[in-house]
């Protein structure tokens, strides 16, 4: 399987590259600067400069883009729209590293994690912009997309256990009542979805066992 990982130099991107290579995939890193991932095949381009030809022939494109500064937050929408346009109408699947703020906490799907009184104010702009990008993604019936939300406590340096609980649109807690997952176990879930393609045009979520 041929997989392209966009923003492969990021913390999550590097772990996804490592996991995919370990599972036997042919992985290409898409990076703006010198490649720091374990991929030996590289496309050195800014995400917004990518063309449809760049992504032609890949079975899966994994979007690990992240923006954190206030002025860059709208790029969650613009970058995802650009990638959708590049793979529109093709067999290439687009998998997105998503956020937890847009997960629902009511069965009616009327209240999201980011709406909670205890949700940190500092993260609301990020969660809101990522939620908007997901809403826009849901309208793309021309793209074989999957959006994967991590647990609420997304731990960069957590261990790889290789295990996780697969959830859907709602915030899922494990047996300990926690919403937690490591970047490494999230990468396991991402590569599982890349290899299996089980959730086309769906948002799924993952939490540690």
Question: What report would you give on this structure?
Answer:
This protein has five helices and ten strands; from the N terminus they run βαββαβαβαββββαβ. With 209 residues, it is α/β, with parallel strands linked by helices. The chain has a single domain, classed as NAD(P)-binding Rossmann-like Domain (Rossmann fold), CATH 3.40.50.720. It has an eight-stranded mixed beta sheet, with helices on both faces. The protein has a two-stranded parallel ribbon with strand order 7-9. Helix 3 (75-87) links the parallel strand 4 (60-63) and strand 5 (93-97). Helix 1 packs across helix 5. The protein is globular. The mean pLDDT is 97. Residues 8-192 form the NAD(P)-binding domain.
What is the element layout, followed by pairings?
Elements: E1 2-6, H1 11-22, E2 26-31, E3 41-44, H2 52-55, E4 60-63, H3 75-87, E5 93-97, H4 124-137, E6 144-149, E7 153-155, E8 165-167, E9 180-182, H5 183-196, E10 202-207
Parallel strand pairs: 1-2, 1-4, 2-3, 4-5, 5-6, 6-10, 7-9
Antiparallel strand pairs: 8-10
Helix pairs in contact: 1-5, 3-4
């Amino acid at each position: 399987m041929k997989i392209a990982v966009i923003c492969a130099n990021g913390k999550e991107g590097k772990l996804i590259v490592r996991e995919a290579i370990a599972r036997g995939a042919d992985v290409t890193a898409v990076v703006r600067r010198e490649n720091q991932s374990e991929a030996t095949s590289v496309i050195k381009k800014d995400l917004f400069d990518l063309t449809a030809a760049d992504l032609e022939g890949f079975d899966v494109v994994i979007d690990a883009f992240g923006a954190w500064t206030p002025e860059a937050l709208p790029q969650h929408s613009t970058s995802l729209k650009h990638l959708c346009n590049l793979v529109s109408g093709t067999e290439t699947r687009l998998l997105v590293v998503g956020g937890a703020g847009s997960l629902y906490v009511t069965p009616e799907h009327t209240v999201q994690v980011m709406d909670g009184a205890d949700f940190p104010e500092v993260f609301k702009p990020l969660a809101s912009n990522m939620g908007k990008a997901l809403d826009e993604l849901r309208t793309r019936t021309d793209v074989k997309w999957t959006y994967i939300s991590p647990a609420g406590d997304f731990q960069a340096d957590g261990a790889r256990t290789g295990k996780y609980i697969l959830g859907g649109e709602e915030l899922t807690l494990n047996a300990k009542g926690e919403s937690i997952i490591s970047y490494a176990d999230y990468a396991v879930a991402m590569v599982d979805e890349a290899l299996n393609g089980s959730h086309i045009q769906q948002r799924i979520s993952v939490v540690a066992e």
